[in-house]
Design brief:
The structure holds 2 protein chains of 2 kinds. Chain A contains no helices and 12 strands. Chain A is mostly beta strands. Chain A is globular and about 45 Å long. The mean pLDDT of chain A is about 95. In chain B, the strands form 2 sheets. In chain B, strands 2, 4, 5, 6, 9, 10 and 11 form a 7-stranded mixed sheet that branches. In chain B, strands 1-3-8-7 form a 4-stranded antiparallel sheet, with no helix packed on it. The chains are: A mainly beta, B mainly beta. The interface between A and B is medium-sized, with 20 and 19 residues.
């Protein structure tokens, strides 16, 4: 079945460090791919998305490129801030009309 | 943007009681709403999908008589946890999706409801 695999956390970084959170997927067809962010005690917020191969989603300094050849959608940010500390979920929307989430990666940024 | 609210944001109840959680789409009509459950430090697990005016479709392993879902209007869905027990304590999150033509393949999430059963 369709699935999403994320790197395990927590990821601990100093402020202004470069961030990469790996995400790979298994799916039939051409799913849409998403990154969601969850701040402590809150629901999920859409961070960025890409709907077809080679699309790059970007928002708030975060970027991710839909790579069909490697079935990946890695999240990157050039310079993280303390306020970026949260849990990040990679997800895909497949032909079963459901969002399938990865297990989430906790990011902790220290000043 | 599309806004989804949930009420209450947190609830504490005694074992054996029932709890109702509301999910509202505030500025769009949600033809489909989804209910998720999230355990501490884990991912979201889809519990059920509900379409306005029809019965909810439950995921495998989710007790439909335990978790009653009603989607009576295009802006409101409710989840009732019946005869709640401590193992039902969790963070419940709803999401809503609009009709075709409005980011059809995007779900907008509510802020979640933390349920604690004593």
């Amino acid at each position: 079945g369709n699935s999403v695999t994320q790197m395990e956390g927590p990821v601990t970084l100093s402020e202004e460090a470069f961030l990469t959170i790996n995400c790979t997927y298994t799916a039939t067809g051409y799913p849409s791919l998403f990154w969601y962010v969850q701040y402590p005690g809150e629901g999920l917020q859409l961070l960025l998305k890409a709907t077809k191969a080679d699309d790059k989603g970007s928002n708030k300094g975060f970027e991710a490129t839909y790579r069909k050849e490697t079935t990946s959608f890695h999240l990157e940010k050039g310079s993280v801030q303390v306020s970026d500390s949260a849990v990040y979920f990679c997800a895909l929307y497949d032909n079963t009309d459901k969002l399938i989430f990865g297990t989430g990666t906790r990011l902790q940024v220290f000043p | 943007g599309a806004v989804v609210s949930q009420h209450p944001s947190w609830v504490i109840c005694k074992s054996g009681t029932s709890v109702k959680i509301e999910c509202r789409s505030l500025d769009f009509q949600a033809t489909t709403m989804f209910w998720y459950r999230q355990f501490p430090k884990q991912s979201l697990m889809l519990m059920a999908t509900s379409n306005e005016g029809s019965k909810a479709t439950y995921e495998q392993g989710v007790e439909k008589d335990k978790f009653l879902i009603n989607h009576a209007s295009l802006t409101l869905s409710t989840l009732t946890v019946t005869s709640a027990h401590p193992e039902d304590s969790s963070f419940y999150i709803c999401s809503a999706r609009g009709a075709r033509g409005r980011s059809y393949n995007e779900q907008f999430f509510g802020p979640g409801t933390r349920l604690t059963v004593l």
